Amino acid sequence: MSSAADTASTRPSTRPKTSPKAIKFLFGGLAGMGATVFVQPLDLVKNRMQLSGQGSKAREYRTSFHAVASILRNEGIGGIYTGLSAGLLRQATYTTTRLGIYTVLFERMSKADGTPPNFFMKAFIGMTAGATGAFVGTPAEVALIRMTADGSERVCVCVCVRERVCEREGVCVSVCGCIPTMARAVVVNAAQLASYSQSKQALLDSGYFRDDILCHFCASMISGLVTTAASMPVDIVKTRIQNMRMIDGKPEYRNGVEVLVKVIRKEGFFSLWKGFTPYYARLGPHTVLTFIFLEQMNRFYKIYFLDS
Predict the structure, then answer these.
(1) How many helices (H) and strands (E) does the chain have?
(2) What's the pLDDT tens digit per position in 138-156?
């Protein structure tokens, strides 16, 4: 008679079939790029507002609507999509890496029967994936900040990185802001995971929601509000450092702390949250659209390749 251990060892694995790792990375990048097509104008407005009025309390843009009106008046309808090529490149690097690593680690940390890891492990996986993705995507994000700052969509994103950054200011500047970018990614993922999980559970417990797209959308918007408030000071540091110029052969800022001190002293404490409205309006829908696209691609892949 065989032992229980022998029986267990010969029992077929109940772990569900999943797509190859390359497909996980591919779908993650495509989902992020698809979402960016819809929210790029909000990212443009957010960056313009964060860069306006540097060194003084006089702001170029009074509100988000004023920024949009100014862009449309001065740059035309196409101006609201300035920097789209860099935005897509950023998603192709940052989101491909972030979602790919998150999905792979999530499945590896799940049990054989498909039971997901606990909340704290999810948070750790998310922060790890976010920091890694931010490191990979920093050069593309530098190009995005520069192109949205001066309305230079007419210039190819590769030319922007090569000529405006690497050749004029040094190769090291192409990865400037790497530390605040990674710090922002850690803050965003930590806040996003915790607030999304709690918001979704609260909505489901209320009895008015089911676990569907409407619930996911509402939870994402609540999560976006919390994440925006938590991450904007880090985000404005990242934006200022990535857009800084070399003055007499020296960088405009030495580190992120100097950015915070100068912004608070010269522009006021609440300037750390300049661009709050477009940032929040971008973060929630971008999260929803990214995961809707991702879930649909995974669904079709499962139907036509895994189950066929």
Answers:
(1) 12, 2
(2) 888 888 887 887 665 545 5
